[in-house]
Fold these 2 entries.
Entry 1:
Amino acid sequence: MFVLFHQVEFLLFLAPVLVGYWMVPKRTRNFFLLIASYAFYASWNWKFGGCLLASTAVDYCVGLGIHRSSQARTRRRLLTLSIVTNLGMLGFFKYSNFFLESLVELAGVFGFSLDIPTLNIILPIGISFYTFQTLSYSIDIYRRKLEPTSNLVDFALFVVFFPQLIAGPIEKARDLLPQLRAPKFLKDVDWKHGLYLFGYGWFLKVVIADPVGVVVNEAFGPPSATVGKLEVSGSRVLMALYAYSLQIYCDFSGYSKMARGLACMFGIRLSRNFYLPFFSRGYIDFYKRWHITLSNWIGEYVYMPLYYYLPRTRLFGAITGTKARLYVSAAVALLVTRIVFGLWHGASVNFVLLGLFIYCGQWASVLANQLTKNSSLRNNAVHAAIARPLQSFVMIHMFAFAMLFFRSHSIEQVEEFCKRLLTDIDLSELLRSDLIWSMYLPAAFLFSYELLQYRRDDEFAILKLSGYRQLAFWLTLATFWILRADPGGGAFIYFQF
């Protein structure tokens, strides 16, 4: 029986773990937390533990081997072992059927008929997150950015730390390992911020994300379905796209906040994974604020190596001028990273198209910035009052449309819904009275609260308000909770990745 952060059963797991962690001797705390983390993972499916242990063992040994070797060839071979092991496991469990189906379709294009059965594979929970995390450990040691740890317990805990094991944030060893090794004292724990993050993340999940999901499922069908609905009006599709934008943000950012809050209770600070993305100044800025740890990981370990490597290849030999090479290199590297970003989320053509859409949106944002770069209005009050909110407005609509690729069950559903968005729109459907309570009021509350954070540039701004204002905020949360909470809601959306 798996345990979810927003279920009461999780509190029954958390309470003894938290008490035990602070009661056991300091030298055994990491071992205690490691056992608790393995127990948490086993509550999902103990059979998945094999991949987790393999990734841990390989990268622990590879890290020590790379550090101790002075021969470049040996270091490269060890790094290759880490890459092949981690990406091999991820590729087999997550992408096998996608590649087999693509092979069959490609053969059909050339007139060949292949009959390849799909594999009955269950995706190990959290594998997309912990393989990236362990892989970055070996790469950083290879690049001499990190000293390996010889303490197997510390390293295993870095991999399996339960608050962020299932769905991130994706931490780098150079940020998390020093915290795990450092001595901790109960008096230094930031309980106020930890409890706030956990509670507010819980609110986002059960009070906003899960109830809004009902509106989404009316159009797309349930997430568990293999084939989505097709006979849906364009107005319902449009409404569902905005609803899903709200749902996935509250669901995933809610999980990330809960993970950070839990880590705070153990004296650990995890990376912030969302930074007010809907207040972004364009599409490029948006993906610096959305799923930040994944974007940073792909940027550091995929984009930057490609950006510097490509200009030195023969393929770029025909391009004259250093500046031109770098521009083309940036374009190609960004294309690859966006496809990786899309495929990381799922093994289907939909997610490839999602990556391509993001890529085109980011280049459109670059071109728009270039066209207005020399505008006399760019740096004055008019620009600040009109242009910047307009950028955010356009970005929100682009993100909502991108969710069509993200939420649809198939490319056929994407095609059909695109047709309906162009031919079957009745805006009066967007004014249905039931949507005011199910979608618009929660969205207005979230916008108002995040506007406060944005203006004060402080994630914890609400905790610094005067007593009456803070009381009004908590009463509003309590009212929404009583009237809207769905304690029996489903798993977090990003658990499927």
Entry 2:
Amino acid sequence: MTQDQLEALVDELGLVSVVSLLATICHDKAQEILRLKGRGADLYTAWNANAFLLRQLMIRLRPTVSYDPDVDPTAD
């Protein structure tokens, strides 16, 4: 994904929604690593910490647009 594509996604969904999606991806990745390697894995700690930081950031951000999960943002 290019920066222009990411900016377009932020324009379409709003920054809070994009940060929320990133936090979810980080959390899911941490859970996947946990299942494969266990809690002591460095990658688990890193992904989990990133998810936590993104969630903290999300709380501080103000919504700029409402996100409708039933709408496909990639549909033309």
